[in-house]
Amino acid sequence: MIIKPAKRTESVKEYFFSVKNREMAALNVKRAAEGKDPIINLGIGAPDGMPPAAAIETLRETALLKDSHKYQSYQGLPALKEAFAEWYKKYYGVELDPVSEIQPLMGSKEGILLSFLTFINPGDKVLIPDPGYPTYTSSAQIVGAEVIKYDLKHENGWHPDLEALEKMDLSGVKMMWTNYPNMPTGAKATPELYQKLVDFANRHNILIINDNPYSFILNDNPISMLAAKGAKKCCLEMNSLSKAHNMSGWRVGMVAGDADYIKEILKVKSQMDSGMFKPIQLAAVTALNQGEEWYTQLNAEYRRRKVEAFKLFDTLGATYDTDTAGLFVWGHLTPDNKFLSSDTSKTLGERLSDKILYEAGVFITPGFIFGRNGENYIRTSLCATAETLEKARKIIESL
Predict the structure, then answer these.
(1) Which residues contact 395 (CB under 8 A, 6 or more apart)?
(2) Residue 146 burial by Cβ neighbours in a 10 Å radius (0-12, 13-18, 19+)
(3) To 10 degrees, the CA torsion angle through 275, 280, 286, 289?
């Protein structure tokens, strides 16, 4: 290169799964030459099911219309914003003004960086869960924020320890990230937890952003932080169709909250894109209008897969909670586990992940990528069929 990258990039690395997928692609070339099957990838949570058939039909029909291919509104189609508002009212009991309190996004991952760009100055402090989604930390680092990790631990149900948070030096803390049902642990929130978090945020003038894409997956009671009293004063919530509607590649998400927050986010977003493809927005409206039977069928399949994931973790000697939600199973390891590699310089999760990958051709995510509190854990995705999970287990049993 004839120029140096911006200094802000020095604090972040390429996303773990981007690196790992490239490594597995190279391993698969070698495995094919040896007559072996491709690696069974139980890593990332990319739903493998089909979106609602009616949504695909809406996409097909509207893509044939002449006016579908123009630049679209930066704010999103009114029909999509109204559909999101009805979805929140029906399932979460939250009233949102579709005009001023909802901003469609090209996936909620876009919204994470947008939120940092909109509200955080270099040096501002941000509370980020450990374990937690790595993009919270990397986005904070890109904008020059000071990252302050707060612990989520098994003994506390993977919920924030609010007493410990109150004892922290919160001077300069401007934002806090939460995520329930939690990724990677699968822990569920409660209305009581959300109310306590809202009260905490209002006391300390902290903006909480709740990342809520897993609320319909293996969860009979979807809830929103915005339902808590006083939430709109201090909270934003992100959601998407990626998990609940098998539409991860479509990149349809949203952020909701008080109109003043949404207006500021739009200022930044309008500099970054020229609107979402109209047929995708209209198809998203169709998806959001699916009845409860859609979620019932979706979760019936995930429950079937979860049974096989538990059997896989039993084989691996990992212990786990059974009453969890979301697309993953989170398992704890101990140093006497027989599936650990010999490299004691690595975390327990890395050691198991390495051994299973290189000796069995099965990839399971090591928990260290989610933070220090994940070092002795592994995570498997439910985005593989029950038959694939069973196959992975039998291969590992043969080691």
Answers:
(1) 40, 360, 361, 362
(2) middle
(3) -50
What residue ranges define each of the domains in the chain, with the CATH number in brackets?
7-49+293-397 (3.90.1150.10), 71-290 (3.40.640.10)
Per-residue pLDDT tens over the stretch 294-306: 999 999 999 999 9
> What count of other Cβ atoms lies within 10 Å of the Cβ of residue 360?
20
Nearest to 180 by CA among 221, 120, 141, 140: 221
Q: Is the pLDDT of residue 274 over 90?
A: no
3-state SS, one letter per residue, for the chain: CCCCCCHHHHHCCCCHHHHHHHHHHHHHHHHHHCCCCCCEEECCCCCCCCCCHHHHHHHHHHHCCHHHHCCCCCCCCHHHHHHHHHHHHHHHCCCCCCCCCEEEECCHHHHHHHHHHHHCCCCCEEEEEECCCHHHHHHHHHCCCEEEEEEECHHHCCCECHHHHHHCCCCCEEEEEEECCCCCCCCCCCHHHHHHHHHHHHHHCCEEEEECCCCCCCCCCCCCHHHCCCHHHHEEEEEECCCCCCCHHHCCEEEEECHHHHHHHHHHHCCCCCCCCHHHHHHHHHHHCCCHHHHHHHHHHHHHHHHHHHHHHHHHCCEECCCCCCCEEEEECCCCCCCCCCCCCCCHHHHHHHHHHHHHCEEEEEHHHHCHHHCCEEEEECCCCHHHHHHHHHHHHCC
Which tens digits make up the pLDDT trace of 78-88?
999 999 999 99
Length of the chain: 399
Average pLDDT for the chain: 95
